[in-house]
């Protein structure tokens, strides 16, 4: 055997579903087996999970047609040959094609809400979920929130979560991609929010002339050209339009910062995720008093500005010294994760 052949055999994952007669026989054994196969394949995690065990459980449950949370008796249930064969197919696609598990199960969670997801949209994972669950406290009086804009809605995750968090608010969910909007509509319908969440096509604020909001939230594309080239294969399954934002990753953020003030009510909030492009943004807009939010569950690169701060242009020195701190005392918290 050649050295290269031996190497590739050594790296080949074990038969993931144990399709032979001695394969795993219970749900629990199947999860453990799938976890070993995923680990051996040295995959990238970052699309809703950060470890092999969670992805193994998600794929096994999908193959078995079961839902979380699992009980002990369910874990001891026998796993039939048909389910093992379905799992084998899922693992093969996850490992060979590097397809994120969520695109295989077509289901994910965001701010405690279940969503349909496929390759027409980015897999929801924004830390903004945490802020929505807290109803944007302490930054705004939730009782006064009547109009919210989710700019670059993708699956509709942020818009739907906002509509649930603010039952008296109407939400505009806009995106440039008609394919993404089709997915957002599925989710809005499933959550019976069609009366309060309006899904429409817009190039940034282009189709929103005259509209004003109490909160504008956006998780726009923010990956720069070089960073995009270096992303793990998993990210190539996501729409390029959802990731790529020009040379420095700021194409979308620039438009948002230019136009948001005209679409905010007095005291209104702009919240934007820019991920690892936060440093470039601070350099590009040294006079804006960005408040960088910190999150208990990780992630970062999300800034907040009030409408009045968007139009204010204090001299550079003054803005640096008057930079506001978040309630937790953390004014900069830039996540290491991609997107
Ligand atoms: C990073 S994804 C965010 C999706 C979703 N909000 C989330 O958090 O999972 C960015 C979204 O912005 C959309 N987008 C890109 N350029 C846009 C533009 N010029 N105007 C409006 N939406 C745009 C993409 O189609 C994509 O759905």
Topology:
Blueprint: H1 3-11, H2 27-40, H3 52-64, H4 72-75, H5 81-96, H6 101-105, E1 107-110, E2 113-116, H7 128-133, E3 147-151, H8 157-165, E4 170-175, H9 178-190, E5 197-201, E6 213-218, H10 225-229, H11 240-243, H12 251-259, E7 264-273, H13 278-284, E8 291-292, E9 302-306, H14 307-311, H15 316-321
Parallel strand pairs: 3-4, 3-6, 4-5, 6-7
Antiparallel strand pairs: 1-2, 7-9, 8-9
This protein binds S-adenosylmethionine.
S-adenosylmethionine binds at residues 121-122, 124, 126, 152-155, 157-158, 174-177, 180, 202-204, 219-221, 241-242, 252.
Quickly name the level 1 CATH class of the largest domain: Alpha Beta
| Strand and helix order | HHHHHHEEHEHEHEEHHHEHEEHH
Small molecules held by this entry: S-adenosylmethionine
Structural class: alpha/beta
Strand content: 5-15%
* Major β-sheet annotation: 7 strands, mixed
The helix fraction, in percent, is 25-40%
Question: What is the CATH topology descriptor of the largest domain?
Answer: Rossmann fold
**Average pLDDT, all residues:** 86
Overall radius of gyration: 22 Å
Give the count of structural domains: 2
Identify the overall geometry: globular
Q: How far apart lie the N and C ends?
A: 42 Å
Q: List low-confidence stretches.
A: 1-13, 17-21, 314-339
What's the number of extended β-strand segments?
9
